[in-house]
Each structure stands twice: as structure tokens, then as C-alpha cells.
Amino acid sequence: MLSVRLQREADNLLFHFEEPLKDYVRAVQSIKATMVNRANAFRQHFDLDQERKYKELNLEKLKFMNPEKFSETEVEFRELKTNSETATKRFEHIVAVMNEELTRFQEQKTADIGLAFHEFAKGQAKLAKDIADAWRGVLPKLEACSK
């Protein structure tokens, strides 16, 4: 009976310690996914910016060498420039949101994990005390049986 009660207390203690850690792991996985999105956005921003610079140089050359093709290429260049600017804004937005969220995450999770460790330590101390009390109650009975 006593061991069942102590086992329940130990299980409860473990559950309350384990859940904040699982929550922390889920949050870290979410951050990793966001970082992948940021990397992809940066890659798109960088690639489009490089392509825009290359086409801008070609556009300048066409202005003098082939004026007929210049107007056609200029339309393509404007579209590419718009796409490049959109990709840059998307990347900058992701970075800004990430910076805000990381700060909030660090503050909140530090507090959560600290509380979880504190509660776990208190629970461990209480469990050790309860076990010691249980043995104190059992020892006189064992001694009586051995006489």
C-alpha cells in the first residue's frame, strides 16, 4: 500500500518535470523550422538580387547595342526587380519576427525550465522525506517481528 502511494507520487513528480521539457523540445523544433524558412527566404532574396544585378548590367549594354530589345528586356528587368524587392521584404520580415520571438522564447522558457527544476527538486525532497517517514513507521514493526 505504501509503495503504491510513493510510486504514484514519483510518477506524478516525473510527469510534472517531463511535460515542460517536452514543451521546450517542441518549441525548439518550431524554431528550427522557422530558421529553415529564414534560410530559404535569404537564398531566394540573394539569388534574385544577384540575377537583378546581372540583368541590370545587360540592360545597360542593350541600351546602346540593341535598342529594340532594350524595351522588352526592360519589362523583364522591372518584374525581376519587383520580385527581388518582395523577396527582400519577406526575408526582413522573417528576421524581425524571429528576433522578437527568440527574445520572448528565451525569457519565457528560462523561467519555465527554472520553475520545473525547482518544483522537481522540491518534489524529490518531499518524496525522500515521505520514504524516510515510511521506513520510520515500518522499522519498529520489523524489530518487533524479529524479537
UniProtKB/TrEMBL annotation:
The lineage of its organism: Eukaryota, Viridiplantae, Streptophyta, Embryophyta, Tracheophyta. GO terms for molecular function: phosphatidylinositol binding. GO terms for cellular component: endosome. Pfam families: Vps5. This is Sorting nexin/Vps5-like C-terminal domain-containing protein. Residues 6-139 form the Sorting nexin/Vps5-like C-terminal domain. It comes from Zizania palustris.
